[in-house]
Amino acid sequence: MPKFVYTALIYMVALLLPVKLLWRGLKQPAYRQHVGERYGFYTQKINAPLIWVHCVSVGETRATQPLIQALLKEYPQHQILMTHGTPTGRETGQQVLREEIASGRVLQAYLPVDTPGAAKRFFAHFKPALGLLMETELWFHLIAEASHRQMPVALLSARLSEKSARGYAKLGKLTHDCLQQLALVAAQTEADAQRLQALGASNVMVCGNLKFDVTPPAESVTNGAGLRELLGTNRTVLMAASTREGEEPMILDAVKDSDVLLLLVPRHPQRFAEVEALLKARGLRYVLRTELAQTLNEDVQVVLGNSMGEMYTYYAASDFAIMGGSLQPLGGQNLIEAATMGVPTILGPHMFNFAQVTREAVAANAAVQMADIAELKNTIANLAKDKAKVRAMSEAANDFTVQHRGTTQRLMAAINKLLKT
Predict the structure, then answer these.
(1) Are 95 and 226 members of one domain?
(2) What range does the domain containing 361 cover?
């Protein structure tokens, strides 16, 4: 794709963006806030040299917590600018870095739409000393403008599935030139590194997955134990984590004849009402998490996790979990949070966005993966009745996360070199 075609398409996106924000804002009013930032107009006050970290949404924001805390410790004279693409990402940043934001050491903003003008306004206002993009965020005009200003940009904890690599390959020279402008690409796995190099990246290293270094909130275990008391300690609790549209019916069908209590947690908060309507339509006995104030009656079948910021608490209250996004061809979701809490995970056949960590978790006995969705009912039933297997998998999940830590230190060593150049 010629760059002028991409530029024309991005300007069309910019023109239509208010419509999207208004539409999304009907369900999530936060989409109607800070609209000027989407076009590169900012009011944040800069009091020190900036290190810019882009975390598009919830998963990347949580994963970046240990890195940002390490940066604040190593560079006390700097501020950190966290940019996001979604309100839920921004809200998550406020949850996991509350004190740092309150003190002014961490600023938050939306990354602007990738037009040349918005990119210029972004850099003119913030003037960062270094840019760190998390996972797979290639914005061609922003990266080109950073290169023009001789500001180093690194792609960290980078992952690129085969499907995404094919998509970027179709852009040809546009992708190649963008990757060449990056000062560093720190890939999660050797396979990710090879795919990025094939597309044009240089200065590539393998660093591991930053999500293994995330420390769950200190209160997670205590809060999880309290939630488990409400759910019932004599029941088997199955958490359906970060489910996506179309997956809830599959899971409900798989547990409908069992005694398992289903803790159902949709991926996106705007779907809470939709999933509740599904439970009503099926005539299921359910309780909303936000209304759960006393021990459940034994006849309750489903607890709908309609709260924000409680994923670790939900895991701590569960015996085992099903990973959302993996029952349909959506690529799966992050299984590391479950493993960190010692929760065995059932994975569907579609974990292609987390292919290597899936293979390693299954090999470590921290997770089981189904070849076909038809196996779901039996897989749940087998784990529900085999408590010894669940305990063994729980221990394996804890060991698995411990063995994969250390990415933050490797990334900090690389960042130190970039800031000194």
Answers:
(1) no
(2) 220-403
Of 387, 358, 360, the residue nearest 370 (C-alpha): 358
Catalytic site residue 74? no
CATH for 27: 3.40.50.11720
User: Do 285 and 312 reside in the same domain of the chain?
Assistant: yes
Task: Name the active-site residue from 60, 247, 248, 337.
Answer: 60
H-only helix segments in 75-102: 87-96, 98-102
The pTM score is 0.86
Backbone angles phi, psi at 111, to 5 degrees: -70, 135
Looking at the fold, whether 162 and 280 belong to one and the same domain comes out as no
Does residue 37 contact residue 109 with C-beta atoms inside 8 Å? yes
pLDDT digits (tens, 9 = 90+) for 105-163: 999 999 999 999 999 999 999 999 999 999 888 999 999 999 999 999 999 999 998 98
Q: For residue 181, what are the contacts with CB-CB under 8 A and spacing of at least 6?
A: 143, 144, 146, 147, 153
**Looking at the structure, do residues 274 and 138 belong to the same domain, yes or no?**
no
